[in-house]
Specification:
This protein has a single domain, classed as Ferritin, core subunit, four-helix bundle (Ferritin). 81% of the residues lie in helices and 0% in strands. The protein has helices at 4-28, 32-54, 63-82, 89-93, 97-121, 125-157. By secondary structure, it is mainly α.
Length: 162
Amino acid sequence: MFTLEDIRNIALQIEKNGEDTYRRAARSCPDEDTARLLTALADDEKRHRQWLVALPAGRPLSAEEREMEKMGRELLREMMASNPFVPDSDELAAGDFMDVLRRSRDFEEDTIVFYRFLLALLDDPEAVAGMEAIIAEEGRHQRQLETLLRQHHDNIAAGQSC
């Protein structure tokens, strides 16, 4: 059994990795418009993290549920170690700029899938609305990154950087 706290911790790491990656990419990009957009994406990820921290804790667990939670947490650790859903920010930031954009776009898609799973665990209407807003924003990030990829490709064809 995974608790909302376990899932929230994964989501917090996802948002931290995203923020770090976008800030690093923004600093390395000489194009001011692209750097501003990447900084805005980083700011969104930071805001998502703040929202996740504020999510209310679930109900108190029984002794049996606490034991199941412990087993679930161990299973989650093993899953994360063998096939990490959450890459570290250095992994996402490695490679050329276009590769970073591609992997970030794909990671936004994975994040949306994960957050839809998290959404199913929420029962508070305010928390559901907040998670739906974050999912929509992650979808916007994905579309913005796709646009940046096309622009970057066009810039390379024209002999420009970033």
